[in-house]
Amino acid sequence: xxxxxxxxxLRSYVAGAWHSPDPAGARPLHDAVTGEEVARxxxxxxxxxxxxxxxxxxxxxxxxxxxxHQRAGLLKALAxxxxxHRDELYAVSARTGATLSDSKFDxxxxxxxxxAYASKGRRELPNDTVYVDGAVEPLGRGGTFVGQHVAxxxxxxxxxVNAFNFPVWGPLEKLAPxxxxxxxxxxxxxxxxxxxxxxxxxxxxxxxxxPEGSLQFVAGGVGDLFDHLTGQDxxxxxxxxxxxxxxxxxxxIVRESVRFNAEADSLNMSILGPDVAPGSPEFDLYVSxxxxxxxxKAGQKCTAIRRAFxxxxxxxAVVEAVSARLATTVVGAPDAEGVRMxxxxxxxxxxxxxxxxxxxxxxxxxxxxxxxxxxxVGADAERGAFLSPVLLTADPDRAEPHAVEAFGPVSxxxxxxxxxxxxxxxxxxxxxxxxxxxxxxxAVAREIVLGVAPWHGRVLVLNERDAKxxxxxxxxxxxxxxxxxxxxxxxxxxxxxxxxxxxMQRTAVxxxxxxxxxxxxxxxxxxxxxxxxxxxxRKHLEELRPGDTIVAGPRRVTQEDVEHFAxxxxxxxxxxxxxxAAAANPLFGERVAHGYLVVSxxxxxxxxxxxxxxxxxxxxxxxxxxxxVRFGDELTVTLxxxxxxxxxxxxxxxxxxxxxxxxxxxxxxxxxxxLTLVAKKETAS
Length: 685
Ligand code: NDP
Hints:
Keywords: Oxidoreductase. Pfam families: Aldedh, MaoC_dehydratas. By secondary structure, this protein is α/β, with parallel strands linked by helices. The chain folds into three domains: about 10-260, Aldehyde Dehydrogenase, Chain A, domain 1, CATH 3.40.605.10; about 270-480, Aldehyde Dehydrogenase, Chain A, domain 2; about 530-685, Thiol Ester Dehydrase, Chain A, CATH 3.10.129. It has 19 helices and 29 strands. The relative contact order is 0.10. The mean pLDDT is about 95. The chain binds NADPH dihydro-nicotinamide-adenine-dinucleotide phosphate.
């Protein structure tokens, strides 16, 4: 049978071209609200081996030519492009059952991740193609043999298998760190909502913003894709624990040690603290949190609260308050007046959730909602995948509430009697993505957070103090780890730059300092310094080189200097001003100079005072005072250009300098990095 012409068959974008499958035999996808056929889905005819080769051969090299900052710039541009087109995405999103605020969660959330990674890339990564990880490790006594970890992008493809519930955010939160790392992506959406991810990918490819080969898209099954993976490829998976287990043990993944990151369903919990009583602001926050997690995206959130633990004496009050709020939640078509909760993603999914509610009800009691019946506004309750929010209670010692996940608007309230007991109950979920504790008592928060942390990827502590700015229990954030141990998949996504490094290989390089400087582009202590006639502060960004050095001094430090500094700044600490007290100090034995005086005198020595390319000093890093400076000591400073970070979009860049302040006997008294902004020559005239 041929599909009606009005129903598109989704195209894949592989090996540089759109692939249109034969509609015959393609799987129909349905509007979650009306039940109408929306699109057809098939990846028949896609050459998966060729797609991976294309990513490795075309996308990877194109990305690796760019610096982290250039990739960050493209992510920012992409975010701007998608923002301009977000209304189109909202319209398609409504057909997945999402209300407008659900769609914003998905679409704007995804754009937000792109922007967050664009910003982190520029602020936390160098304008280079190699990432220097951690400090130089001395490996020999003489300083001629040192080690340094570096990270470089894997030369494979990041295969990203997504879940149905966030068809825009899901692919974007996986794409952003892979792209920033310099690794091309191959996106596979979940079938039920693939038509929305398809709309997203069409927008991205049509924009022409991303280098060719850096994004490929497979609409439909993955065929023999996994057979072609190598140790340079990665797989990032979101979905059920069962599928994660199948894919993780695929023979090629095992044989090739393919990096496999899973984010699977989990039985997330929220604890009402023992200090919180009905009528308090925290009690209301708890109730609002449970209701929000049940109804946003109709509870189809991997982080949603499935287990609500409350002090035994407050179970009734919590059930009453949550039920009252759920009773006012209008369910229906996303575009109908007053609707607060839309449909599940598909009728199949509703069937699955109903089966799981039945299992939970066997172990407890439904106290709000009817899984078989719901009043629906603006749509047909049976043709659309609508479901009433369902609240249950259960004995916490039953196994089911800790094991059965109803992936919909469903939560179970359970009583507890002590903190050690609730910590133990939380752990029965066998590993979760997100947990929360609502308490105003920091001691309660510490006991619970440290107790549940080994089973959780993220924990929110909510109270009146942070509620206004809190992003809530269920929101994964680009700067924070998203993932969890055990049942939650054992993986980590995002987490800021951690997610970028996941796509890179960390290599320990052992070499002499000069070689290491050449490899990393970052001057390493012990490698050559270059003293020239021109003061380094008179050089523009383009003229500076790592290793450019100025040696200045000596400068004698006198008692008058120290007393002047003490009076002037008000820092009359006894070690500098009180001879008897200083003599009793086991570290000094006599009066010594202020560390800040040493740093200030060093600046006085190395600074070139006239107007020039150095625009500002924006801080110091890693300042350590190593040896006390006594009256009469003579200081010399050696300032060496360590790292240059040009800003593509600014008339200046950052220069990191190594500062080493030494005494007359050569001993270092202070070491630190000085951070300056230096103008580019091209913009100086
Ligand atoms: P699945 O695990 O079945 O699917 C997740 C993704 O894996 C989809 O893209 C799916 O594609 C793909 N997939 C499934 N089987 C294979 C395979 N053999 N090889 C390659 N890819 C495969 O989860 P569902 O989407 O069906 O949801 C089921 C349950 O998972 C939910 O009820 C919920 O409990 C949980 N879930 C968890 C989420 C989370 O974020 N942790 C999110 C969504 C669901 P396709 O759709 O084409 O089969």
